[in-house]
Amino acid sequence: MKKLTFNGLIGGILIGVLLVTALLSLVWTPFDPMKLSFTARLAAPGAEHLLGTDEFGRDVLSRLMVGARAAIWIGALTVAFATVCGTIIGLISGYARGWIDGVIMAINNALMAFPGILLALGLLAVFGANQYGIIFALGIAYTPSMARVVRGAVLSLREREFIEASKVMGNSELFTMLRHILPNCLAPITVLATSMFGWAILSESALSFLGLGVPPPAPTWGNMLAAGRPFFEQAVWLGLFPGLCIALTLLGINLLGDALRDKLDPRMRGLK
Amino acid sequence: MIRFILNRVLMALPTIALVAITVFALIRFIPGDPAELMLGDMAQPAQIEALRTELGLDQSLPQQFLIWLGNVLHGDFGRSIVNGEAVLPLVLERFVVSAEVVVVAVFLASLIAVPAGVIAAWRQNSVTDLALVGTATVLLSIPTFWLGLLLMLFFGLKLGWLPVLGYVSIRDNPTAGLLYLILPVMTLVIHEAGVLIRMARASTLEVLRLDYITHARAKGLSESAVLWRHAFKNAFGPTWTMIGLILGNLLGGIAVIETVFTIPGLGRLMVESIFARDYPVIQACLLVVALSYVLVNLVVDLLYPLFDPRVVAE
């Protein structure tokens, strides 16, 4: 096992801080993130409000902490949805082959012919613009790439001797698939799921920024940026901190993803 | 050569058909009567009845699809629910605005990022390489809409050098139009350069390991000849494909940048149409962007032999 790289370490720390903050926000935030205070409108960062207050006098740090929770929650559910659906579809497609594979891959390719965010926008028009609409829309938009990766891995695995052996031993197709094929697909699945988590958080913040995501007053990083926009000139912290949260989170995920890919690479090369 | 071109074009046809089916199906998934959806809340019962017949809603789904496809092929995407305008001219007009920004940005980003990536690979693990890769990773982690807001805050509000709100088309007034283009293009260039530097570096690294590079060096060729004449030629292929993908992805994801800089482009139109539940416009936007994505990738594929003639032989 290769030792953890410097980049992986930085990425891990960034994501660790994010997770701890999000968990902490469940039990404690410096202020009530929803509490309005007209005496403390647009207060600059200082001793009382560490990251300042917004146009309604709400504490920015508290709202960012709750926003972290929203980002992780939506990102995780999206990735879970895409990973579960994509893996099942990919396993079936790669293992069954023949016309089933043909039909599934045709639908898959049709969905992949759309840029991801465009497909998500189209699906949002169907599901309605809200938290669960976003999860479904992004989840469906990401499923085809997961299905494709899993199918590719299955296709190369199924010709290997140990799969043959499992069948000769009289194991059922389902057992072989779950016990022998799936565990060997985990490396590419993990790598892709990590990048997907980043895409999901970025897309969620972008959609919230457009007003198509979680509606205010519930705080998300994206809708905080959109709401604070008219006040940036007087209150630069409203434009700075939410964006910084998104950027640091994405940086953490990218660094972690790179490290993960380097580490899992030998196995992935073996799968090709 | 002709066989290669025909082959690629024929391969794109099923994709285009599938895209059309998906766009058609997507709108049909929305609960409710398609004719009522297409006409909005203000429609008269007689109008709805007429459109129902026109869309063939009493017939089977495949027949409905063929009717829709026939209309689309004649350029008839229906009328906007919001203002009753014909959809196609509206969408095409907005598309040109978006395409201008995206094409210029991708061109400039490639111009900067590809040489940077090749140099990073050439000096692998040196300070230059680490600095370039580090910068690239940071750049691609910054969401474009935030970067846009920051650039606007700095160059527009703080320094007052560039206009902040509104939009002037470069075709109406070249000088003013150019000023309005600078910030959105700069935002996209900074972000996409991050993606492309890493891509160009990775594909160059792969090539630099090959024997013919060692051979070229052993012949006594200068490093710049080895790098640009031998390595770059073979390394550019994957990056070229990536440039195509970025171009298509940007067309789909341009909505945030257009919102930040109040550019009346296709992305903005689509978001507004989602708010207004203007389904005919949404449908047309989806189709136009998805088709241009397919076409861009087709053109990228067709030009690929210019960089790597081997693909034709396969």
UniProtKB/TrEMBL annotation, chain A:
Residues 68-257 form the ABC transmembrane type-1 domain. Coiled coil: none annotated. Keywords: Cell membrane, Membrane, Peptide transport, Protein transport, Transmembrane, Transmembrane helix, Transport. GO terms for biological process: peptide transport; protein transport; transmembrane transport. GO terms for cellular component: plasma membrane. It is a multi-pass membrane protein. Belongs to the binding-protein-dependent transport system permease family. PANTHER family: D,D-DIPEPTIDE TRANSPORT SYSTEM PERMEASE PROTEIN DDPC-RELATED (PTHR43386:SF1), OLIGOPEPTIDE TRANSPORT SYSTEM PERMEASE PROTEIN APPC (PTHR43386). This is Peptide ABC transporter permease. It comes from Tianweitania populi.
TrEMBL record, chain B:
The keyword Amino-acid biosynthesis does not apply. GO terms for biological process: transmembrane transport. One of its GO terms (cellular component) is plasma membrane. The gene is dppB. The keyword S-adenosyl-L-methionine does not apply. SUPFAM superfamilies: MetI-like. It is a multi-pass membrane protein. It comes from the Bacteria. The chain crosses the membrane at residues 9-30, 95-118, 130-157, 177-197, 239-261, 281-304. This is Peptide ABC transporter permease.
